[in-house]
Amino acid sequence: MSSSYMSWRSSASNRRPTQPTNTSKNRGTIYPDLNQDPTPKPVIHFLAFALIVFLGLLQFLPASHFRHPSDPHRKWVPFNSHSSPSPTVKLTVDEDDGLIHIVSWMQCLDLKVLAVLANSTLSSSRYPDMLHFHFFTPQGDKDKVSFYKLKVLFPHSNLELHGQEKVKEIIKRASSEAEYDSLNLEEIAPFIIPSVHQSLTKFIYVSPNLILMGRIEELTGIDLSAHAAAAAEDCSNRLNSYVSSDVLDAIQRSASKPWISVTPYVKDACMPDLSLLLINGKKLEEFLEAVLWWSKVLNWSDRSDKRNPAIGLALYNRYLKLSNSWLVKEPASVDTIETSMITHYDGPKIVCSEFGNDTIPGSSHGNLWIKYLPSMSNQILGI
């Protein structure tokens, strides 16, 4: 026991004492948190504040893209910068049902063309749920299959198919066979439709062969109380290209009709573009009579090779001129597409012929129509 104790004492006595630590020399490495924080430069404070203000201001910028609620793929579609609504235009809709009625007349049914027209109009509008399409087709509401195909493509949209028989019958009763054949039904029908469908007192007529990239609801805020229609001027077609000023002067001196202008006709006046119209059905009294009168006086039934100017003459001083942005343009270039509110349909389409309906050859097709073709069109329409 004693030897064990002594050996423990000798090992303990031989231990080296621990050297004291110089904390003053190593203070910086052992206690780094005691150092004073570096002071940032004033310019850093300024840049941080400017960044916060900049990010806050970004919240006030208008939306650049949107996703249509009916699109199953939820694709982002850019808004058109050129179609921002005018601050003086207020949205006005039908007083009875609160909808914006869009009418189109198609001589030969082509669901692909109608689908592009409807989809481009819906995707460009801020109020797609307020748009109501009325498509006048040869079979109308009797063609249930075509109606259901369109409803599958646009399940949340308001659309109807109407027949053309009643409108054609009114025109046939008022005209001779030669006069009837000289008229373009797609141009004259919009002015007859209010007399058949009296609920359509104010509507927007759109030719089916168009692609809309502007917000069509902007047109509904235009005051038509003093006009029968509103249309853009097409200065590529002028009045003196169809009728000489001497003939118009002679008619003005000899005839006494309410639709003849009181003031002299401007010989190089631009003709209205009848592809897109805003119609006021309450101001169309005697309009068909005026068109047929002009067609007869000018003996236009014998000149079927040229476009009949009777509608343009019946509208002379009776239509409100829309801005040039609503003039239909050709989708010939990227610049035209980006600055236009409306262009011609550039895809394959069916044309009427006495031997049956034919499709225009594919060499003349463009690519813009594909952008507005609904995603399920291949399966539903069999394209």
Automatic annotation (TrEMBL):
<keyword id="KW-0808">Transferase</keyword>
<comment type="pathway">
    <text>Glycan metabolism; pectin biosynthesis.</text>
</comment>
<dbReference type="GO" id="GO:0016757">
    <property type="term" value="F:glycosyltransferase activity"/>
</dbReference>
<dbReference type="GO" id="GO:0005794">
    <property type="term" value="C:Golgi apparatus"/>
</dbReference>
<keyword id="KW-0812">Transmembrane</keyword>
<keyword id="KW-0328">Glycosyltransferase</keyword>
<feature type="compositionally biased region" description="Polar residues">
    <location>
        <begin position="14"/>
        <end position="27"/>
    </location>
</feature>
<dbReference type="InterPro" id="IPR029044">
    <property type="entry name" value="Nucleotide-diphossugar_trans"/>
</dbReference>
<feature type="compositionally biased region" description="Low complexity">
    <location>
        <begin position="1"/>
        <end position="13"/>
    </location>
</feature>
<feature type="transmembrane region" description="Helical">
    <location>
        <begin position="43"/>
        <end position="61"/>
    </location>
</feature>
<protein>
    <recommendedName>
        <fullName>Hexosyltransferase</fullName>
    </recommendedName>
</protein>
<feature type="region of interest" description="Disordered">
    <location>
        <begin position="1"/>
        <end position="34"/>
    </location>
</feature>
<keyword id="KW-1133">Transmembrane helix</keyword>
<keyword id="KW-0472">Membrane</keyword>
<dbReference type="InterPro" id="IPR050748">
    <property type="entry name" value="Glycosyltrans_8_dom-fam"/>
</dbReference>
